[in-house]
């Protein structure tokens, strides 16, 4: 992680006169400390008590001076108490002193001082060490120098300095009294001014503040000064206390080995040091600081509201947003107006007339034939016109008709026609012809209304049917201008003369003829078709040789050539790919953990219980020892087979090796709390570990790790409570940074070592491991964890997904041929017969015993004179059971279960689905389209849903034709003109295809084009899915219209040959006619749709309710859609048992820093002075809105910019490095300016700022200059990868400015952070003229969300447009196609609304599911809409007065024709499969597949089977006959007549036409 590229800064700010810092044997431990007064004399230390003397406070008098020795050989010189007068230096002998004084403290400093020349030299050296931290802010630097110059040399020391304790030392072998502690009185004005001038000074190399290094991160001026005054082993040699301005405070520390004595007795309290501090925003250019170091000098950016502020300021009405509130109000008003208008029309009787086809006239019900009596006016009224308004309204709203209708629906369909009691004018009569339909004087119709399909004989006609009812008249078209239709209302008497040829649609005729011929060919040559089709598919499947799976998330979710993809590519090429990280969290384990088998090595401690962070400190001395042992174990790990160690693969920017490989593990960047102790606890005790840790985290530069870069406390300690020391952290974090590269060899080496580390961490996290025994929870991740866990999740999902498909396959195979219902009926009837026999026998015994007691003897019922006793009835029942029903039951089982079953045909349907998936995948692979996991999981669902529906439609349509065929003795009862009775299997199959082929083609065309248009989207995941889906649907339709038709013909021949399903070699003996009487049956679902669902759905009151219900659903869906968020929580894609779930939870709970972000400047000549000003920030010549200044200004509003840390500005540090005042930063030799010096040299001088060639020459040297205590601005550690040089290293092609995002916890945070970074980059590009772009590791995963809403709108709009256009072509009606499109749109909207309710985010995965929803919704709607268009009454013209009635009739017939097939074929199939998916462990499958697919199926079913029929009955277009004039035209009309002969609601619907005004 580039966050670890921190400058190796270890400054010894021993600013109080000690030369010890320059001879410190371990400079890493040097800490910033105040300047200490001391002489240059050195002697052994001794201690003596100092006699008390009188202390005088006055101007010109000192408090301390010179040096009285050291406390240790490594300690600094300690000054002597000296209350004498200050020394005046104004003669020629003091020129050198005065020159040194002016250089150190400024020319305006008093020449009368209390310090010696030796003290000035040490002061100068100490200040120069602090200079790199604060030199770029003149105000801070000058205040810093003035403050310590006053402490060391002010002639008025006695006024503000007080020696509080002394100690006895030795110097030159003589005992001395030295200062032990002092009080430095500072006024609030100077202290706060000094603090504010330095508070925001940045140290760019560490993305931090200088205050963190010199002030311990102090938040006020008193804490700042007290931190610098603390006595430390390698800092200030004595204690400097800073009393609060309100009074003196006790010293912060005291000597441990001496008893301090009062050295002076102050006669008066001190006067605080109150010089005027310099402000960072001073108008003086020599004092004024730049924007990054002084916020008041920054340019003000345009105000911008954060997302939270925008949310809080949104329009609301109470607690409800204005938009949903407006929708609810509009809906309520519209509903109230519609209700009032309906009541008005009911009350005024405007809905009473029947002649206009309005079905709202008769008690709001669609009447069955047997309910005709209920349609008569109440007794005493000649008509409904005589009713009062109140009586009429009460009657219209009555539910009595509904109860009567429901009750009558249970009666036998063969009921007599209700006789009329009121007369009607003959002009209102409708001539129905002589086809078995009789109309009385009132216009009411009787017919063979309840006849089951297939029972078309004339022996069981209704009493009101004349003789003609026993025979059927076959209508023809040749030379005829009229058409007769059995059971179908045509035209009224007035329009009989105007009858003409049936209305047709030429395109439909062409399709019908084509599919008729295709069906005939496939049925005539089934084996040839199967062979050719399978051969073609086999040849196409050769494309599997080029099959590839795309797993790269960049290529999966980012469009090739998109800006974000190009930016990542440029960044990787210029600076190298982002580092690999191995991260471990240690936290306190919950009190109760789920016990697991100790022998299960696959369970991690993170799996033991749901994430529940414990609010307890994790650190203790024992925990530190355990962490140390863990780190030592990891350093010692060796991989196989290459024997790689951490040093072999880690990132080591400070390694002396030229290839960057660490020479030892100490060179590796390892961010750990133990880094503050240099990976050793030898000098740490259980008593002082917390104190030392808190001191190190307050000043990271004081406790550098072995790799030499300061540690950010937020990266190693997490969950620190506010106001608590870091030792109270709730988590310890260890991060190993591993090198990454575009070189595959480097990546393989890293992955090999990561595999070894993974095994160690998995064992460490075991519940029986050492960590658990220490009550620690281990949450971990390595570089390969995410990919491996996603693969594991996929492998875990495979069984449940396969089981889901197997369940659906089994359902299809069983239910297609009715074998399941056959078995159920057989068992049910057997149980019924058994129960009837038991009840009958028990009844006979009971009655016999009862009568025997009455008569004194048992009387046999057969002795009854009339032979009609109980005994006779029982014998009759028994005989019936034995001779009839049982016999028929056996024959039924043989025929319906063994022969009529289509299990093998169902398997053919499944094979076709699988073959279409395989073939389309092979074709796409051959075309170079890679498959994705989304495709692998979603395409089978889509094709199965669509394909199974078509299989059911074709099979059920063929069953309708087969039901007309009668065999055996029944054939003699058939009419000579009963054409279906003589049709060959090939003819029936051809006619089936002629009817259903165009419907299947229309549906497949809509879906293929809709999916194909999705390929226009740039996102590869969506584009590839669209291509695969379009290909799979197209191939599936082609195979179903050829292969399945051939298989259907073979199965039909098997059935007619009485061969057993699945075992066609075995035949069943032919059954007697009586035994097969009920062989042709209607399924329960079909009968329910025909007799119950359709009539009740099309009642006027029901239709009004449906419209109101779906209008409310539209409002709720729109409101819910507004709550759909963006994103995809990666934890959902993982198994619940994955160790990464706990790791991500730990990151959210404990990591208090966001990911690093790089703002890359590309295409700008950085060596030119004008461009330097566009980049820099720390100098007065920099532009106000330069790159660095804008980033700093944005950082100050993190709620908008999501930036939290100061940027690392390479050009500022480079120019500062060239500053001649920083003499320790060696650049060129003084004697040879063209020769760069080595780090050991210090004789260097450079004047001015480099440009052009000089700029590049010094940049190259700067990038090789190490970062050390002497020169912390060296660029090797911090900026070696921040600049991309040309191949000749003569130009800077690109450079980046590193900063950090604020902590990002939610998906919205990540998305907003990316959007903010892109906005900032766009503004910088506009201002600088350069190409500026942001880069962070997570951007590529969230790039799609910036356009996914518009992308979703575009994809779905294109799909809906395709549905409307293709539907208009196939249906021949723009209006009906519009209704279908509107239904699909409402389905999509409801799915999106459910996503908002279920908290399912919008992401590429859910977008794919929405595209699937289009296909499913079309499948539910297309067949019904085409059946509606083709279910006209023989295709004859319909008068305008009857158009509404015609729409209702055609809607009911459409539901009867395809409703049951759609429900059982797609609805039930997918619901069964989806139910299985809810048992998966993958939350991703449950959320984005099970839930979304469930919403899709339910919504599509409701809209397609409830709303669409209502819309069609109200607003559908006029229909046409499904006929052609060539070859197969005549059979259509006859088929339509027979098809709808036995429909109870037909006569009822027709009867509604009889009351015309």
Automatic annotation (TrEMBL):
GO cellular component assignments: membrane
GO BP terms: sterol transport
Composition-biased stretches (Polar residues): 406-420
Keyword terms of this UniProt record: Disulfide bond, Glycoprotein, Lipid transport, Membrane, Signal, Transmembrane, Transmembrane helix, Transport
Protein origin, superkingdom: Eukaryota
Domain SSD positions: 892-1050
Any one GO molecular-function label of the UniProt entry: sterol binding
UniProt region (Disordered), positions on chain: 24-50, 401-487
Membrane topology: Multi-pass membrane protein
Residues in the signal sequence: 1-21
Gene3D superfamilies hit by this protein: Multidrug efflux transporter AcrB transmembrane domain
Methyltransferase keyword on record: no
InterPro entries: HMGCR/SNAP/NPC1-like_SSD, NPC1_MLD, NPC1_N, SSD
Start-end of Low complexity biased regions: 421-432, 462-487
Name of the protein: SSD domain-containing protein
Organism: Rhodotorula taiwanensis
């Amino acid at each position: 992680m580039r966050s670890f590229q921190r400058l190796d800064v270890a400054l010894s700010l021993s600013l109080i006169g000690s030369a010890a810092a320059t001879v410190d044997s371990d400079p890493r431990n040097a800490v910033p400390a105040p300047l200490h007064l001391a002489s240059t004399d050195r002697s052994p230390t001794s201690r003596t008590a100092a006699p008390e003397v009188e202390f005088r406070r006055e101007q010109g008098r000192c408090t301390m001076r010179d040096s009285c020795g050291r406390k240790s050989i490594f300690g600094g010189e300690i000054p002597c108490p000296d209350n004498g007068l200050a020394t005046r230096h104004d003669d020629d002998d003091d020129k050198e002193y005065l020159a040194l004084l002016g250089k150190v403290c400024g020319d305006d400093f008093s020449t009368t001082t209390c310090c010696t020349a030796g003290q000035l030299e040490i002061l100068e050296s100490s200040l120069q060490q602090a200079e790199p931290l604060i030199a770029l802010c003149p105000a801070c630097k000058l205040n810093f120098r003035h403050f310590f110059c006053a402490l060391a040399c002010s002639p008025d020391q006695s006024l503000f300095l007080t020696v509080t304790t002394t100690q006895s030392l030795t110097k030159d072998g003589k005992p001395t009294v030295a200062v032990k502690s002092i009080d430095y009185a500072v006024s609030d004005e100077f202290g706060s001014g000094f603090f504010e001038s330095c508070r925001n000074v940045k140290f760019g190399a560490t993305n931090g503040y200088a205050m963190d290094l010199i002030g311990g991160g102090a938040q006020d001026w008193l804490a700042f000064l007290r931190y610098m005054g603390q006595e430390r082993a390698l800092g200030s040699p004595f204690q400097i206390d800073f009393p609060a301005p309100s009074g003196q405070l006790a010293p912060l520390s005291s000597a441990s080995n001496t008893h301090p004595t009062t050295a002076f007795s102050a006669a008066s309290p001190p006067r605080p040091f109150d010089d005027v501090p310099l402000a960072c925003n001073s108008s003086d250019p020599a004092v004024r600081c730049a924007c990054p170091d002084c916020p008041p000098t920054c340019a003000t950016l345009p105000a911008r509201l954060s997302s939270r502020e925008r949310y809080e300021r949104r329009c609301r009405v109470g607690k409800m947003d204005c938009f949903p509130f407006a929708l609810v109000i509009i809906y309520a008003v519209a509903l109230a107006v519609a209700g009032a208008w309906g009541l008005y029309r009911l009350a005024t009787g405007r809905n009473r007339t029947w002649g206009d086809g309005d079905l709202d006239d008769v008690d709001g019900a669609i009447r069955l034939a047997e309910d005709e009596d209920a349609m008569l006016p109440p007794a005493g009224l000649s008509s409904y016109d005589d009713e009062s308004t109140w009586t009429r309204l009460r009657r219209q709203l009555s539910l009595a008709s509904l109860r009567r209708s429901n009750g009558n629906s249970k009666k036998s369909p063969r009921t007599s026609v209700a006789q009329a009691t009121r007369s009607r004018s003959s002009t209102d009569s409708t001539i129905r012809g002589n086809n078995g339909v009789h109309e009385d004087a009132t216009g009411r119709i009787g017919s063979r209304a309840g006849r089951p399909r297939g029972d078309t004989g004339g022996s069981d006609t209704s009493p009101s049917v004349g003789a003609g009812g026993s025979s059927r008249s076959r209508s023809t078209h040749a030379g005829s201008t009229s058409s007769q239709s059995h059971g179908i209302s045509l035209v009224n008497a007035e329009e009989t003369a105007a009858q003409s040829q049936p209305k047709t649609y030429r395109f439909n005729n062409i399709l019908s003829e084509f599919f008729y011929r295709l069906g005939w060919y496939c049925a005539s040559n089934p084996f040839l078709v199967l062979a050719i089709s399978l051969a073609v598919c086999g040849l196409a499947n050769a494309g599997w040789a080029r099959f590839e799976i795309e797993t790269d998330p960049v290529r999966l979710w980012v469009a090739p050539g998109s800006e974000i993809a190009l930016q990542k590519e440029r960044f990787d090429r210029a600076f190298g790919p982002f580092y690999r990280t191995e991260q471990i969290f240690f936290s306190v384990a919950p009190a109760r953990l789920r016990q697991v088998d100790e022998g299960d090595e696959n369970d991690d401690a993170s799996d033991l219980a749901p994430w529940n962070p414990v609010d307890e400190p994790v650190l203790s001395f024992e925990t530190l020892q355990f962490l140390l042992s863990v780190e030592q174990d990891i350093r010692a790990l060796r991989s196989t087979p290459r024997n790689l160690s951490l040093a072999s693969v880690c990132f080591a920017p400070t390694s002396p090796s030229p290839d960057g490989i660490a020479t030892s593990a100490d060179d590796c960047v390892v961010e750990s709390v133990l880094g503050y102790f240099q990976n050793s606890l030898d000098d740490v005790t259980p008593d002082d570990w917390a104190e030392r840790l808190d001191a190190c985290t307050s000043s990271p530069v004081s406790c550098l790790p072995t790799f030499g870069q300061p540690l950010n406390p937020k990266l190693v300690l997490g969950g620190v409570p506010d106001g608590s020391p870091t030792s109270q952290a709730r988590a310890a974090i260890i991060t190993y940074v591993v090198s990454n590269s575009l070189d595959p060899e480097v990546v393989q080496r890293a992955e090999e070592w990561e595999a070894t580390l993974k095994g160690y961490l998995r064992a460490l996290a075991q519940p029986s491991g050492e960590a658990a025994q220490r009550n620690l929870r281990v949450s971990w991740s390595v570089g390969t964890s995410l990919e491996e866990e996603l693969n594991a999740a996929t492998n875990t999902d495979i069984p449940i997904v396969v089981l889901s498909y197997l369940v659906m396959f089994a359902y299809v195979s069983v239910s297609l041929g009715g074998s399941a219902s056959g078995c159920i009926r057989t068992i049910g009837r057997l149980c019924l017969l058994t129960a009837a026999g038991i009840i009958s026998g028990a009844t006979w015994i009971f009655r016999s015993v009862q009568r025997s007691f009455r008569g004194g003897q048992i009387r046999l019922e057969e002795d009854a004179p009339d032979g009609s006793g109980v005994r006779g009835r029982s014998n009759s029942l028994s005989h019936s059971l034995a001779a009839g029903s049982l016999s028929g039951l056996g024959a039924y089982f043989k025929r319906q279960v063994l022969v009529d079953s289509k299990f093998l045909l169902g398997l053919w349907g499944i094979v076709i689905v699988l073959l279409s998936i395989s073939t389309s995948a092979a074709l796409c692979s051959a075309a170079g389209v890679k498959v994705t996991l989304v495709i692998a999981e979603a395409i089978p669902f889509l094709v199965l849903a669509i394909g199974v529906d078509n299989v059911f439609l074709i099979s059920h349509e063929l069953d309708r034709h087969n039901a007309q065929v009668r065999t055996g003795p029944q054939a003699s009862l058939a009419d000579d003109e009963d054409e279906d009775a003589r049709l060959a299997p090939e003819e029936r199959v051809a006619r089936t295809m002629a009817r259903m082929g165009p419907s299947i083609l229309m549906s497949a065309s809509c879906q293929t084009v809709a999916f194909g248009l999705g390929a226009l989207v740039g996102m590869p995941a969506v584009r590839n899915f669209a291509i695969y889906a379009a290909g799979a649907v197209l191939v599936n339709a082609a195979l179903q219209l050829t292969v399945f038709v051939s298989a259907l013909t073979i199965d039909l021949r098997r059935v007619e040959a009485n061969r057993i399903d699945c075992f066609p070699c075995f035949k069943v003996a032919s059954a007697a006619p009586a035994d097969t009487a009920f062989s042709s049956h209607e399924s329960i679902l079909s009968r329910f749709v025909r007799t119950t669902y359709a009539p009740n759905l099309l009642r006027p009151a029901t239709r009004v309710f449906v419209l109101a219900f779906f209008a409310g659903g539209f409002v709720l869906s729109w409101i819910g859609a507004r709550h759909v968020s963006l994103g995809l929580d990666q934890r959902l894609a993982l198994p619940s048992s994955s160790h990464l779930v706990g790791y991500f939870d730990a990151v959210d709970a404990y990591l208090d820093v966001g990911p690093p972000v790089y703002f890359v400047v590309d295409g700008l000549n950085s060596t030119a002075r004008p461009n330097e000003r566009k980049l820099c920030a720390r100098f007065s010549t920099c532009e106000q809105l330069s790159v660095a200044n804008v980033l700093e200004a944005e950082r100050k509003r993190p709620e908008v910019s999501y930036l939290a840390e100061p940027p690392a500005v390479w050009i500022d540090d480079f120019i500062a490095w060239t500053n001649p005042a920083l003499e320790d930063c060696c650049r060129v030799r003084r004697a040879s300016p063209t020769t760069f010096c080595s780090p050991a040299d210090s004789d260097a001088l450079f004047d001015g700022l480099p440009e052009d060639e000089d700029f590049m020459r010094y940049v190259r040297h700067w990038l090789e200059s190490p970062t050390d205590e002497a020169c912390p601005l060296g660029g090797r550690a911090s900026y070696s990868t921040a600049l991309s040089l040309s191949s000749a290293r003569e130009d800077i092609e690109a450079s980046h400015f590193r900063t950090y995002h604020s902590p990002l916890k939610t998906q919205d945070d990540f998305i907003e952070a990316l959007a903010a970074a892109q906005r900032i980059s766009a503004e910088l590009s506009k201002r600088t003229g350069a190409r500026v772009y942001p880069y962070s590791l997570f951007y590529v995963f969230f790039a799609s969300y910036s356009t996914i809403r518009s992308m979703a709108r575009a994809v779905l709009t294109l799909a809906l447009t395709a549905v409307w256009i293709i539907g208009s072509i196939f249906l021949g009606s723009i209006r009906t196609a519009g209704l279908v499109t509107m239904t699909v749109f409402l389905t999509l909207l409801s799915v999106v609304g459910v996503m908002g309710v279920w908290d399912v985010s919008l992401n590429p995965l859910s977008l794919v599911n929405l595209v699937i929803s289009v296909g499913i919704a079309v499948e539910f709607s297309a067949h019904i809409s085409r059946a509606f268009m083709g279910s006209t009454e023989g295709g004859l013209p319909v008068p305008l007065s009857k158009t509404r009635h015609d729409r209702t009739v055609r809607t009911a017939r459409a539901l009867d024709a395809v409703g049951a097939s759609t429900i059982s074929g797609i609805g039930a199939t997918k619901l069964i499969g989806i139910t299985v998916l809810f048992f998966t462990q993958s939350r991703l499958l449950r959320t984005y597949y099970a839930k979304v697919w469930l919403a899709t199926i339910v919504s599509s079913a409701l809209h397609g089977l409830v709303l669409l029929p209502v819309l069609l009955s109200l607003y559908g277009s006029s229909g046409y006959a499904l006929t052609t004039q060539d070859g197969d035209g005549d059979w259509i009309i006859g088929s339509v007549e027979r098809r709808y002969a036995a429909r109870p609601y037909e006569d009822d619907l027709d009867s509604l036409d009889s009351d015309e005004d």
